[in-house]
C-alpha cells in the first residue's frame, strides 16, 4: 500500500473537494469498484446502492454542511455520480445492513503520561486487496484550525488531529441494533470532530450529536497547557456512551463495546479476535508507554501464532472478503501537530520506514 500526500490552503470546502477529486479521480474510482465488489461478496443488493449512497449524502449535508459541500466537490472533480461518493462514505453503514462482521480490524492504544502529550498508536486493519492506495491530507478550516488526517480515497476521514490539540483514533464496532437504514456515516463523524473541536468536551459533544446507523468508537485525545486527556466515545444505533480516561491513564480499544449497557447488544461473536487482542494490549502496557512511537510499536508485535492478530496477516486460502491485513501503523503527535506512520503492519516497521506528515 502507498500513502499519498495532499496539502492545500483552500478554505472553501467545495473547491477543496473538487481539487482532491480531480487530483485522485483514478484512485477514488478504483475504491468505488473495490467496495462494489466487497458489497457483492457479502450479498448487499447492488440495485439498492444508489439510494443508500444518496441517503448517506443527505444525512451529511444536514448534519455537517461543509463536509457535504466537500463531497459534492469531490464527486464533481472525480467525474462520478453523487451517489457513489455517498456510497463510499457509508461503506460501514452499508455493511451493517447485512450484518457483515469482519474477523480482522483495528487495535488502539493511548497512554496519558503525567506530563507531556498523549502517547498513541494504532493499527488499521482492512481487506488486503481493497486499498492499494490511501491518503493523508493537510488543510485549514474556516475557523482557523489546521487539520491533518489519514483516510481511504473518497472518504472524509478516519484517523487524524488538528493543531488545537485534538486527535482521533478510530475502531469499528458491531451492535445488534445497527443496520436499520442509513444514518450519519461514522467516517464523517470522525472528520467533523477534527474540523470543529478545540477541546475534549467539544469533541465529545460533536461525536455524541450524530444519529448513526453503524457502530464505532472514537478514542479522542487532547493536549492543552501541558495536560494530556482522552475519552472513548462508543457510538451505535442502540445509543452512545463516553468512557472517561481511567486513573492510570491507559485507554485501550479493539472491536467490542466496553460500556456495559452497550455491550449487552454486542454483535461480535465470543470467539472473535477482538477479545484476546485487548487482553494482549493490556499485558503490554509498558511497551506501549514508550516515548518514541517507533519503540511503541513493540507493544503491537503480537500475531495469530502468539494468540491474537494485533499484527494481522492475510490467509491466502480465504476469499478476499474474509482476508485481513494490518495496512498501516499510525500514531498522533499532538505536541507537534503531525501524523506519524508506517505503510504496513507493526512487524515490518523500521526506523527508516517511519514517516512524518
From TrEMBL:
Highest taxon in the source lineage: Bacteria
Identification of the protein by name: Uncharacterized protein
Amino acid at each position: 500500500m502507498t500513502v499519498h500526500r495532499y496539502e492545500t490552503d483552500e478554505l472553501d470546502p467545495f473547491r477543496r473537494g473538487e481539487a482532491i477529486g480531480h487530483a485522485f479521480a483514478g484512485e477514488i474510482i478504483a475504491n468505488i469498484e473495490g467496495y462494489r465488489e466487497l458489497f457483492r461478496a457479502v450479498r448487499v443488493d447492488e440495485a439498492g446502492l444508489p439510494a443508500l449512497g444518496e441517503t448517506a449524502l443527505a444525512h451529511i449535508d444536514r448534519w455537517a454542511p461543509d463536509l457535504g459541500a466537500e463531497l459534492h466537490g469531490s464527486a464533481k472533480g472525480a467525474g462520478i455520480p453523487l451517489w457513489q461518493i455517498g456510497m463510499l462514505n457509508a461503506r460501514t453503514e452499508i455493511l451493517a445492513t447485512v450484518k457483515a462482521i469482519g474477523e480482522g480490524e483495528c487495535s488502539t492504544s493511548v497512554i496519558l503520561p503525567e506530563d507531556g502529550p498523549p502517547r498513541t498508536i494504532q493499527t488499521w486493519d482492512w481487506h488486503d486487496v481493497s486499498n492499494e492506495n490511501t491518503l493523508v491530507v493537510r488543510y485549514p478550516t474556516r475557523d482557523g484550525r489546521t487539520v491533518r488526517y489519514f483516510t481511504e480515497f473518497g472518504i472524509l476521514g478516519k484517523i487524524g488531529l488538528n493543531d488545537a490539540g485534538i486527535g482521533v483514533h478510530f475502531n469499528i464496532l458491531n451492535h445488534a441494533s445497527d443496520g436499520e437504514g442509513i444514518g450519519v456515516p461514522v467516517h464523517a463523524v470522525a472528520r467533523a470532530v477534527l474540523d470543529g473541536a478545540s477541546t475534549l468536551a467539544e469533541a465529545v459533544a460533536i461525536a455524541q450529536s450524530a444519529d448513526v446507523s453503524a457502530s464505532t468508537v472514537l478514542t479522542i485525545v487532547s493536549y492543552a497547557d501541558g495536560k494530556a486527556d482522552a475519552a472513548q466515545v462508543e457510538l451505535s444505533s442502540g445509543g452512545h456512551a463516553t468512557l472517561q480516561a481511567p486513573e492510570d491513564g491507559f485507554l485501550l480499544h479493539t472491536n467490542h463495546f466496553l460500556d456495559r449497557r452497550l455491550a449487552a447488544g454486542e454483535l461480535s461473536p465470543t470467539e472473535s479476535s477482538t477479545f484476546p487482542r485487548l487482553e494482549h494490549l493490556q499485558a503490554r502496557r509498558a511497551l506501549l508507554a514508550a516515548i518514541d512511537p517507533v519503540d511503541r510499536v513493540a507493544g503491537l508485535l503480537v500475531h495469530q501464532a502468539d494468540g491474537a492478530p494485533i499484527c494481522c496477516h492475510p490467509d491466502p486460502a480465504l476469499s478476499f472478503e474474509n482476508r485481513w491485513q494490518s495496512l498501516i501503523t499510525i500514531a498522533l503527535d499532538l505536541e507537534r501537530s503531525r501524523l506519524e506512520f508506517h505503510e504496513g503492519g507493526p512487524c515490518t516497521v523500521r526506523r527508516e520506514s517511519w514517516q512524518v506528515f
